[in-house]
Write the structure tokens for this entry.
Amino acid sequence: MSENVTKTKEQDGRKPGEDYRDADGILVCGKCGEPRERMFPAGGIFKEPHLVPTMCRCQREEADRQREEAERAEKRRRTERLRKQCFPSSGRYAFCTFDAAYGRDAAPRTGCQAISADLEPQSFPSSGRYAFCTFDADDGRNAAQSTVCKAFAATFDPKDPEGLVLYGKRGTGKSFHASCIANAVIERGFSCLVTDIKQVVNLMESSFEKRSGNLERILAPDLLILEDLGAQRSTEYVMEHVYDVIDGRYKAGKPMVITTNFDFRERILNATADDPWGRVFDRIVEVGFPVKYDGNSRRREIGMKNRKDFKRKLGIEGIES
């Protein structure tokens, strides 16, 4: 290093952190001490050696910081866009995580009825209540189920047709965990759609011209989550639309997460030949890993707590309800 570079600030009269030129005329960063210029030798169109800019350590670190911040901002924008498409109403459950799974003070949770913004939202009146479900504070009451769902989300591959069938009694956490999965895969940059068969049937009642396009949009996301399978009347008309959606995902090799009150082993796995759900169940059994939910209804427990809190708020604890 030249003599000038090794001078103290007092000797060369520079202010702290001020850039300077060394004995060779190279601009040096006053903070990190690395050159901000380099001498380019003569050659080609240049008859004489000349100085060209180069980045010192400070500038490289700042460029890295700005790039990382831009990448984080772009990821936030993409994640928010995907979440709005999955949970367009941006209600409570759009941020459900496994870290916040039904804490003791949680508010009541009901079924998610969200649909992509491209799918005529007026046909899908979404509560959006599951739009806030994430994996942040799982109380551990469904530890085994939570482990499976979290592992599925962490290893999700849109090219792997294997999905999950979350089955069991009402109010035991199926919809909550399904929405946790939705938000987790969205955070990883994948697209997801959460809806139910009733909403799908409403959309498929559109004109013949729109019907094919609507079905394609439903089948397009990397992950499709179908809520409350079997809660609808088993009419031939409904079953045809249910089959179209599930068969479409099946043929495309795209994964699904399905929630249902049907018992997997007694009802789905052992469906009889004359069962109206037979064709649907055949597809589900092949590509759906069963996860059983049991126990008491969380909604009933939360409802009882909310009623007590409300009576306390009104000062009417002594009144029966």
Observations:
- The radius of gyration is 30 Å.
